[in-house]
Amino acid sequence: MKPIQITGFLALILITSVCIPHIGNAAEVSVFSDTQNVHIRQLAASCAACHGSQGNSVATNVDDGANAVLAGVAPAEFTEKMLGFKDGSRKATVMHHHAKGLTVDEINQLAVHFSQQKRVVSKALKSQTLKADHE
Description:
With 135 residues, the protein is mostly helical. The protein contains five helices and no strands.
């Protein structure tokens, strides 16, 4: 059986496409390793308490003190804001504490993660009055 020969150009294409990750647009599958994915998903899950599941907070009017929607935000915008929280140039109530605990690489990976999430517009539920009859 003869070994298969691969031309130099084809070999270069194969090697670079497998070994050198690139960050593409939000429609592409994540380029992070499984370990990175787990870590970033865990970090992103901690954001859900304020920013909603997968970055879709219910309240979207940030001017009124509501939490920003992170889903679908451009990675550059997310990174810029997070780095502003991290260095203190962007004012916040608690975000500066969260951002200071992240590395720049984690911020960049979170930016890609949230850019890949589908933005879902939802409205806050109306307040309800509970009626209870106690006899």
